[in-house]
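Thread: Newbie trying to understand structure tokens

Hi all, I'm a second-year student working on a class project, and my supervisor (Dr. K.) asked me to get a predicted structure for one chain before our next meeting. I've only ever worked with sequences, so writing a 3D structure as a token string is new to me. If someone could post the tokens and maybe explain what I'm looking at, I'd be very grateful. Here's the chain:
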Amino acid sequence: MITIYGIPNCDTIKKARKWLEANGVDYQFHDFRKQGLSAEQLQGWADELGWETLLNKRGTTWRQQPDEVKANIDEASAIALMLEHPAMIKRPVLDTGALRKVGFKDTEYAALLG
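---
Reply by user tm_fold:
Sure, no problem. This is what the structure looks like when written as tokens:
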């Protein structure tokens, strides 16, 4: 089963979900604000995709972090921050079971999901 991870009010999540529905792709939505993520799951994504790929530095949650935190970010601190503030995870995270993809581009989803 395909799972899409994110937060429901995110515009990119809305676009991705709309694309999946329009293309008849069965999926489940996981709201990581309400349903959470485990440290093991987030670490697995970081190992596969890179923590830099997962960390959303364009959002307000990142911009609100103290300069000291932003200047000294590394994998361990990034994962801790993303667990504490799930909105700092770049969205969506699409999990096909075989691989994970961060972000949404309709051409990439079409290539990946047929």
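A couple of things are worth pointing out once you decode it. The mean pLDDT is 95. DSSP finds seven helices and four strands in the chain. Feel free to ask follow-ups in this thread.
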